[in-house]
Design brief:
about 625 residues; alpha/beta; Glutamine Phosphoribosylpyrophosphate, subunit 1, domain 1; Rossmann fold; 3 domains; 7-stranded antiparallel sheet; 21 helices
Length: about 625
């Protein structure tokens, strides 16, 4: 995944590009670059490293970059190591075409061989340089306009892309195109903003067009938008939408890192996800995407949930919820595996796809496969107008707001909240949950934001525990039942941002291997809620203590037994077990943050990771 930015208008382009790249840096920070155009020429600067290093490099030249049109890129390396040569923008052999690209061109090598035979040379190891030279080759061989050369070239491409390309001799025009990778266009009178994510131009406009797969646009200074289909050049009517992002949502405010801010936002984001769906006085749940397809959900024999990463952990919790409350068989699949086998999914089946960004490449491909097989596809995602949101049969937004930190926190609890609502409403439709229990759970669900806020106040305790264990290199996380996926998520968070080895396990599986690792140096997180196989968990703790392992336990208020056994205790409010993941995950998120912070890691931008994996 990479971030691309472009500007065409009447303002100076350089500050807009740099500001936009900083907002997009969560999408990639291996290298960055910009090109700013003037009449019959351009200034191009790129470097290995983060955007501030690019800015410092440009400042060292002591020149003023002038120009009202430009493109920029922040890279997450796929083809070629992160260095100055592989950084974008890339330039064609004649230096006439300049391009930025997010995605992967799968048939780039075959194209490169053809271009080499026709006299082209290559400086970088990227697929992007191959694409820009293919466009030049087709343009020159057939005497075509840039627009037509781009269109024909993209019809020869296998893979995913969002691109912006400029011709040096016509710096008043940018051609952009999309397939598989996100691309949005901000529109004001006499100016255009191109970006992988509209948060980068929210300072300037809230008028946005989300390009669909297979669309391209020709942007000309002082001209109206020209939107077309790549396959046949058919002209399209643009649909302009209004962004509803609040500027404060994409600023850190008083917090040092976005991750900590987003952890602390969870009482609000859970409440926002419930708002308008959970009517507490009436004890009623209403989700339009479910109600309008009521019979499909009532008659489903199996539901398959497909996701990646943290969303996959939320999906595992969804499996427990739906089987418990709606009494329907549920399968949870990694999207990357689902799409590469021949899954048994048919016309009467439901596939739920979950993705924070709504742009996850494997999940989007799984969605398309499920629809091709005739399944009803329900989406759960956070980003309005995203590819998944546009392609599902029905769905529900999580309303978590922009999540900037690479490590997902508030999106995870928002996804669980939607899955709880889903399980309760289907269970009520099917009468697999009685009315009294349904009303009790509705009322209790309304209390969750307050309980999460209470747990956030344990941060001081967690800081002290983190100080003790920040130099330890291995951790185990154990949970049972619906809290087993929370153990997986806790371990993932620690791995993602602190680069420590951590493994999550069902507590009973400890004896099938992991217990061999336990000694006096091994901290073990145990989720020991009273209603979650408590006596079994006590047994697991005893086994760890017998081998001198260190126990960090998450327990309910009033706990006595675990409190006596554990080395450290983090207390959480009492809650029904099916809701407990919304509470038990909070200390694990805070612990991961505190460990990474103490170890001096860049919490928001961990190495080698990107926020949304929009390429394979």
């Amino acid at each position: 995944m990479c971030g691309i930015i472009g500007y065409l208008g009447y303002r100076e382009a350089y500050p807009i590009l740099i500001s936009g790249l900083k907002k997009l840096e969560y999408r990639g920070y291996d290298s960055s670059g910009i090109a700013v155009f003037f009449e019959n020429g351009y200034n191009l600067y790129k470097t290995k490293g983060r955007v501030h290093e690019l800015e410092q490099k440009i400042s060292s030249y002591r020149i003023k970059i002038k120009g009202t049109m430009g493109i920029g890129h922040t890279r997450w390396a796929t083809h070629g190591i992160p260095d100055n040569i592989n950084a974008h923008p890339h330039v064609s052999n004649s230096n006439e075409l300049i391009m930025i690209h997010n995605g992967i061109i799968e048939n780039y090598y075959a194209i490169k061989i053809i271009l080499l035979k026709n006299g082209f040379t290559f400086k970088s190891k990227t697929d992007t340089e191959v694409l820009v030279n293919l466009i030049e080759y087709i343009k020159e061989e057939n005497k075509l306009s840039l627009k037509e050369a781009v269109r024909i070239s993209l019809n020869e491409i296998v893979g995913a892309y969002s691109i912006a390309i400029v011709e040096k001799s016509h710096p008043e025009t940018i051609v952009i195109a999309k397939l598989g990778s996100p691309l949005s266009l901000g529109i004001n009178e006499k100016e255009f903003f191109v970006s992988s994510d509209p948060i980068s131009f929210i300072d300037y406009t809230k008028n946005v067009l989300y390009l669909k797969d297979g669309e391209m646009a020709i942007l000309k200074k002082g001209k109206e938008l020209d939107l077309r289909k790549i396959i046949d050049n058919h002209r399209l009517n643009p649909i302009i939408k209004q962004l509803k992002i609040n500027l404060k949502e994409i600023e850190k405010g008083k917090y040092k890192y976005f991750m900590l801010k987003e952890i602390y936002e969870q009482p609000k984001t859970i409440l926002d996800t419930l708002r308008g769906r959970l009517l507490i006085p009436e004890k009623i749940i209403c989700i339009n995407g479910i109600e309008s397809n009521k019979n499909i959900f009532i008659n489903a024999k199996c539901i398959t949930i497909v996701a990646c990463g943290t969303s996959w952990h939320a999906s595992l919790i969804g499996e427990y919820l739906l089987e418990e409350l709606a009494r329907v068989r549920v399968e949870v699949e990694y999207a990357s595996e689902f799409r590469y086998r021949n899954p048994i999914v048919g016309e009467k089946d439901i596939v739920i796809v979950i993705s924070q960004s709504g742009e996850t490449a494997d999940t989007l491909a799984a969605l398309k496969l499920a629809k091709k097989k005739g399944a009803f596809v329900f989406g759960i995602c956070n980003v309005v107008g995203s590819s998944i949101a546009r392609n599902v049969d029905a769905g529900a937004y999580t309303h978590a707001g922009p999540e900037i930190s690479v490590a997902s926190t508030k999106a995870f609890t928002a996804q669980i909240t939607v899955l709880i609502l889903l399980a309760l409403i289907i269970g009520r439709y099917k009468s697999t949950i009685n009315e009294n229990r349904y009303k009790f759970l509705c009322e209790e669900l309304g209390s969750i934001p307050e309980k999460v806020d209470y747990v956030l106040k344990t941060d001081d305790i967690i800081k002290k525990i983190s100080q003790i264990y920040h130099n330890v290199n291995n951790f185990l996380y154990l949970g049972r039942g619906i809290n087993f996926p929370v153990a997986l998520e806790g371990a993932l968070k620690l791995k993602e941002i602190s680069y420590l080895h951590a493994e999550g396990y069902p507590a009973a599986e400890m004896k099938h291997g992991p217990i061999a690792l336990v000694d006096e140096t091994m901290p073990v997180f145990v989720i020991a809620t009273k209603k979650g196989y408590y006596n079994k968990i006590i047994g697991n703790i005893q086994e760890i203590k017998a081998r001198k392992g260190k126990i960090i336990a998450i327990v309910n208020e009033g706990d006595i037994q675990v409190n006596m056994l554990a080395d450290h205790v983090i207390k959480i409010p009492n809650i029904s077990e099916i809701f407990s993941p919304l509470i038990t995950v909070i200390p694990l998120q805070l612990f991961a943050y505190q460990i990474a912070y103490i170890r001096g890691k860049n919490v928001d931008q961990p190495r080698n990771l990107a926020k949304s994996v929009t390429v394979e």
